[in-house]
Amino acid sequence: MALLLVICMSPLLAWADESRPVAHDSDPHEGGWIALEGTNLIKIPVLNVNLGMNWSQPFDYLPVYAENQPIRGTFWGPRNRAGSEVRIAISRFNTSDLLSAFQVIESEAKTKEKGSRAVLNSTGDARFSLRGLSSSGMYTVFIFDENSSAVLSMMPLLVTKGDLTLQMPANITAGDFARLRVNKSLPDNESINQSSIFAAILISRKDYENARLVLVSKGTDESLNSTLSIGTKSMQMRELPSLSMELLMQMLYLLPRNSTAGMQESKDSGADILLITDPEWEKGSYILTCGVYSSGKGLWGMKQEAVEVI
Amino acid sequence: MRAIIVLAIFIFGSLCSAFDLSPANPNSGDRITLSGSTSPGERLSFHSSFSMDLPVTGGQYEYETAVEIPKKPNRVTVTARNVKYLNAGVKLGIWITRQFPASGGIASISHADVPPGKYDLKMFGEALAGSTSVPVEVVAETVAQADSEGKYELVIDTSGIPAGDYRIEGAGDLKTIRIREPSATSISAASQQNRGDGGGDDHVSSADKKETQVEITPEVIQWYAIEIGLKVENKSQYDEAERLLNKRLSGGYWKVIAQGEPLTEEAGNCEQEYCLVRGVDACTVCREKDMLIKNITSDSDATREGEKSLSRNISAPQSGESSLEKGFIGMIINWVKGLLGMHSEGWGW
Questions:
Q1: Which of B33, B126, B169, B299: disulfide with B84, CB 3.0–4.6 Å?
Q2: Would an 8 Å CB–CB cutoff place B244 in contact with chain A?
Q3: Number of other residues whose CB lies within 10 A of the CB of residue A171
Q4: Which architecture does CATH list for B53-135?
C-alpha cells in the first residue's frame, strides 16, 4: 500500500520541478528523451495531467540508484539541436511547485550545484555522467539548453541508501502463504543494529498496469482534482492530497482483492515477509514491489520482481 | 458505626458498579449485551479475554477467524506460547501480514486504538520443537461511557471466540461465562426460545436474524465468477468458480443471500445482486467497505480524549518490543511518511 502510494505519487512529485512541458517529448525518434543506464527500475502507474491541455506521463519506469552510485545515461535529443551545448543537472523535487511546474521555468536556479555539460552530436544525442548522490530521496534529472535555459527533457529518479535482493519462488499457488526473503546490502558506514521496516506488496500485473492517476486543474491548488484508479475502482481527491489515515484506508479499499501486503521490522540485514493469498485469486502474472525503510536513515532500497500465481 | 458506614459504601458501590450480561449462555457468534449503572457520564474500562489451544501439525500452527473490534478507545492483545514466532494477518480490504518474534517461546502482539469493525484474522507460524499445542490468549479492552442517567451498555460480538470460558472484568466486577459451540440444534433452540419469550429478553441472538440461503443456481455461480474475476463464458473458469463457491460454502459458515436481504445494522442490506455472507451479519463487500471507509470517519474529539485516557491507563506488555505497540495502520502511515521524507514536517504535502 505504502509502496503503491509512493509509486503513484512519486512521478507526480517529480513533475513539480519540471519546467516547460514542450520539452518532455517521450518519443526517441523526435528526441528529448533520457535513458539512464545500469539502474534498478520500478514500474509505475500511468499519470495523466490536464491543466487546460492533456499530458501523459512519458515514464513507464522509475529508475532507482543507490547512494553514491554514478548516474550515467544518454540524452536522445532532437536532430535540429545537433551541436548545441546542454547542461545536465539534478535537483530534489519540490512539492510546492507542483502546479506551477507545468507552466513556469523555475528549475534552473535550483540545479546549479550538480551538473555537467555536453555537446549534442550530429543526431542531437549526448552521453552524460553525473556523480552519485550522497543523500537518498526523489530527484529529477534535467537537460537544459545552455543558451536558452530551456528544459529539453527531464526524468525523475529515486535514490536509496543501498540495494536489495529479493528471494521468492517464481511461482506461488493461490491460497498458499508466499514467503519472501529480503536482504539489503550493507555499506561500510551502515550501522548493523539499525532497525528497518521491510515491506512488500503483491498486485496483479493487469491491475498494476491499469493503475492510473489523473490530475485535472485550472491552475490553482483549489481547482486541482485528482482521480486514482486501480482496476475497476477509483477514488477522487480534491486539492493536493494529504497523507492521512483516511487516505490510506481508502487506498486500501481501492486495491484489488487479489492483492496482499506484508511487513516486518528487523535489526538484521534481512527479513522474511509472509504474504497471504486467497484461493480465489486470479491466476497469472503479478508484480511484487518491496521496499526497506530505516527510521532516521530514510529509504534503504526498493525493488520489483515478477511473480506467477498458479 | 464507622465499620457499618464503610460496609454500606462498599456494598452500595458494588451494587452501582456491577454489570449484567445477557444472555448468560451464549453460543459462539452471538452478541452479548453488557449493561450496568454507575455515575452519570463516567467512563468504565472493561477487559475481556479468552484462551484456546491451537493444535500443532507438522511443527506449524494456524488459526483463522473473524473478530469484531469494539469502538475506540480499545486495545487488543494476543499472546501465543510454545512458538518460535507468530505471524498475524489482518484483512483490511487486502491481507496485511506481519511477523512477531518470540522471546522464551512467547510471542505477543498488542495494538491500541484499532479502528472498530469486523476483521478477518489469521495467526500462524512455527511452534517450538516438541510442542503439541500452542496456547493462545486474547485480551480485548474497551471503555463504556455512562449516559446522563448513569446507564451504560456494551455489545460484544462473540464471532471468532471459540467455545469455552470467556472472562469479562470491569466496574469492579469479574464475570466468567461459558461460550457454547454453535450447533444447528442449539441455535434453533435459542432462536425458538427467544421468539417464544416475546421480547422478555432484550438480547437478540444472531440466530434470530433472518437468514436465507439462496439456491446455488448457474446465475449465482456466474455472479460469483465475476466477483472473483473469472470469465463465465470460459467453461473451465466457470467450473472453477463453481468449485470455489462450493468449497467456500461447504463449511456452512458462508452463505449467499440475495439483493435486499439484511446484513448488519451498520452495513445495511445487500445492495448487489447477491452477497457472500460470513455468519449472520457480514457481507464481505459491504463489511470491508463499511470498515474501511465508514469507521475511519468516526473518530470524534470525544473519542480521541477517551483514547488518551485509555492509553494512559493501560500498561504496555512487558514482553513486546516498542515497535509492537504500533498498530498496523500507524506503522504503514509512519512508513509512508518516512518514505516521503515527512519525519517532522507533518502530513501535508
A1: B126
A2: yes
A3: 10
A4: Sandwich (2.60)
| B328-339 helix and A2-14 helix, angle to the nearest 10 degrees | 20
pLDDT band at A197 (very low <50, low <70, confident <90, very high): confident
B287/B254 Cα distance (integer angstroms): 14
Closest Cβ opposite residue B244 in set A197, A199, A279: A279
For residue B98, which residues of chain A lie inside 8 Å, CB to CB?
Answer: 262-264
Q: Summarize the confidence of residues A71-83 as an average pLDDT.
A: 86
- The whole-angstrom separation of Cα B59 and Cα B7 is 55
Strands of B117-126's sheet in order across: A171-172, A298-309, A284-294, A196-204, A260-266, B94-101, B85-92, B117-126, B60-69
Architecture of domain A2-160: Sandwich (2.60)
Report the alpha-carbon distance of residue A120 to residue A85 in Å, rounded.
6
The interface predicted TM-score of the complex, written ipTM, equals 0.76
CB A127 within 8 A of CB A72: yes
pLDDT in tens, B220-265: 888 888 877 777 788 878 888 887 787 777 655 567 888 777 654 3
Q: How far is A79 from chain B (nearest CA, A)?
A: 38
**Chain A contact for B289 (CB, 8 A cutoff):** yes
Q: Is A43 exposed, middle or buried (0-12, 13-18, 19+ CB in 10 A)?
A: middle
Query: Do the chains contact at B95 and A257, CB–CB below 8 Å?
Result: no
The Cα–Cα gap between B126 and B124 comes to: 7
Q: How do strand A164-167 and strand A125-130 relate by DSSP bridges?
A: unpaired
Whether residue A154 contacts residue A126, with contact meaning beta carbons closer than 8 Å, is answered with no
* Closest residue to A264, CB basis, from B92, B93, B99: B99
- List the single residue in A177, A280, A293 with the smallest CB-CB distance to B339: A293
Q: For residue B73, say if its preceding peptide bond is cis, omega within 30 degrees of 0.
A: yes
- Residue of A12, A215, A243 best to disrupt the B interface, most CBs of B under 10 A: A243
Domain ranges of chain A: 2-160
Question: CA-CA distance, A41 to A158, in Å (whole number)?
Answer: 10
Cell of A251: 487506498
CA distance A98 to B162: 54
Q: Which residue has the cell 469455552?
A: B164
First and final C-alpha spacing in chain B:
68
Q: Return d(Cα A107, Cα A151) in angstroms, integer.
A: 9
Question: Using CB atoms, which residue from B94, B99, B122 is nearest to A259?
Answer: B94
Q: Which residues of A touch B338 (CB under 8 A)?
A: 197, 293, 295, 298-299
What pLDDT, on a 0 to 100 scale, did the predictor assign at position B112? 81
Going from N- to C-terminal start, the domains of chain B cover 19-42+146-207, 53-135, 218-296
Give the pLDDT confidence score for residue B180 in this predicted structure: 87
Grid cell digits, residue A10: 512519486
C-alpha cell at B94: 487486502
- Report pLDDT digits (tens) over B134-152: 999 988 898 999 999 999 9
d(CA B137, CA B135) in angstroms, rounded, equals 7
- Residues of chain B positioned with their CB less than 8 A from the CB of A248: 329, 332-333, 336
